[in-house]
Amino acid sequence: MAGEEEREKLVREAVSALQYLKALGCDYIPDGPGIRALFGEGAQMVEARERMKEVVAEEKVVVETVGEPTAATATSLQSLNLEGERPSVTLEEIRERLGDCARCKLSSGRQNIVFGDGNPNAVLMFVGEGPGKDEDIQGIPFVGRAGQLLTKIIEAIDMKREDVYIANIVKCRPPENRVPEPDEVKACIPFLMDQIEAIRPQIIVTLGGVATNNLLGTKGSLGSARGRFHTLDHFGSLVMPTYHPAYLLRDPAKKRETWEDMKKVRDMYNTLMKGE
Ligand code: SF4
């Protein structure tokens, strides 16, 4: 019966892989450079890919809409990092290396470095723009009114704040809460990238256009980026851009769209957890 068990396992893996690809926006049974990048080109991987296709055909697993893969999907697939190696750095090491940082001019006005907060093994991570007044005083991200709203958003998808990890693009408060300048982002963002490397979150929610553009290296509007998953190069984390809670406090009508984004995050989280 070993063959039967193996077949069932393969079917489960195939279905799970298809659900994952579909959630990424891939609406066809894939082959070509993107899928080869996903599965690799070793002999075993080629065989596994062929067998998965056979099982999918046999089980009549249908991926709903038929269409051409988008360039974004192909890029996503090629950039997925599914190697599964252990993180090369820990949060403690990164904090130690950051030290009493004066790598940019934001150091002169801060009270505290706001390094990040939460579960070091989080599957879900939130990235904001930078600390505000309350965060600067307490040294913890998202503790003011916007932070309280973020906590409610997290709880609305059936998670607790302590389940996730929260950080910002810059770790020191910009004066008058202005947008961080390019030289400040350039100095600080490597530490955020190291935190992502240490945590290896499968999903990252970027809060607002500044966080989204700086993390994804894009220049577009938040409106054009939100509502769908992107992939973070190298790490392979799925990135869902949505509105910053501070913006939601100013424009509560945007809460509905934020909720739509967060439902996608919750569904993806549940899909990924089922596949583990
Ligand atoms: S914002 Fe980042 S790079 Fe600039 S001083 Fe603070 S910790 Fe250092």
Summed up, what is this model?
The protein is of the alpha/beta class and 276 residues long.
Tell me what the structure shows.
- A hairpin with a 6-residue loop joins strand 5 and strand 6.
- The protein has 2 domains: 78 residues, no CATH class; 184 residues, Uracil-DNA glycosylase-like domain (Uracil-DNA Glycosylase, subunit E), CATH 3.40.470.10.
- Helix 1 packs across helix 3, helix 1 packs antiparallel against helix 12 and helix 2 runs parallel beside helix 4.
- By secondary structure, the protein is α/β, with parallel strands linked by helices.
- About 16% of the residues have low confidence.
- It contains 12 helices and 6 strands.
- Bound molecules: iron/sulfur cluster.
- Iron/sulfur cluster (SF4) binds next to helix 8.
- It is an enzyme of class 3 (hydrolase).
- GO terms for molecular function: 4 iron, 4 sulfur cluster binding; metal ion binding; uracil DNA N-glycosylase activity.
- It holds the Pfam family UDG.
- InterPro entries: UDG_Type-4/5, Ura-DNA_glyco_family4, Uracil-DNA_glycosylase-like, Uracil-DNA_glycosylase-like_sf.
Instruction: Output the radius of gyration.
Output: 20 Å
**CATH H-level superfamily title of the largest domain:** Uracil-DNA glycosylase-like domain
Gross morphology is globular
Give the helix/strand class.
Answer: alpha/beta
CATH architectural label of the largest domain = 3-Layer(aba) Sandwich
Q: How many domain regions?
A: 2
Q: β content, as a range?
A: 5-15%
- Output the CATH topology of the largest domain: Uracil-DNA Glycosylase, subunit E
For the largest beta-sheet, the strand count, sense and barrel status come to: 6 strands, mixed
The portion of residues assigned to helices is 40-55%
Number of helices: 12
- How many β-strand stretches? 6
Which strand order do you get reading across the main beta sheet? 1-3-2-4-6-5
Q: What order do the helices and strands follow?
A: HHHHHEEHHEHEHHEEHH
Poorly predicted regions: 23-41, 59-83
Residue-averaged pLDDT: 81
First and last CA, distance: 24 Å
Question: Any ligands, ions or cofactors bound here, and which?
Answer: iron/sulfur cluster
The first-level CATH class name of the largest domain: Alpha Beta
